[in-house]
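Appendix B. Raw example, untouched.
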Amino acid sequence: MRFPIRRTRFHVFGCMLLNGKDVVLISDRARSDDFITLLRLIRRHNPFGTIVLIVDNASIHTSMKTLDAAAELDIKLVFLPPYSPDLNPIEFSWRDCKRELWLRDVNTARITFKSTFLSYVNERKLSYSRRWLRLYGKILASYGVILNG
């Protein structure tokens, strides 16, 4: 007999800031309002200066509602070319977290994802970002962002 399997999912939004405080948000959905909540959390934890986020072209990143919220919060969104997640340093963090948590049940994974993600980012932030900075660091400079260290 086959039994229907109901998969429970959750969505993780995260921000890895090279010279700021990293932020993670876990949600049951992935909509523009959820991404805007992440933007507000980022600004709350990083109250000073311009913030530059690298994002893909998902509709939650490109909606007018999101663009207006980002502008209001002084967060600059840098959009990657389509089909190029490998250009976003945070993708390495997601990969490592998924690899570590994939065998756990969904509730345990949901509970531990935030701390697992933050520990990977904290340990490996510069190594994840080194190649990107070498190739695309001029984009940051064009936004007036100067990195410490």
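End of appendix B.
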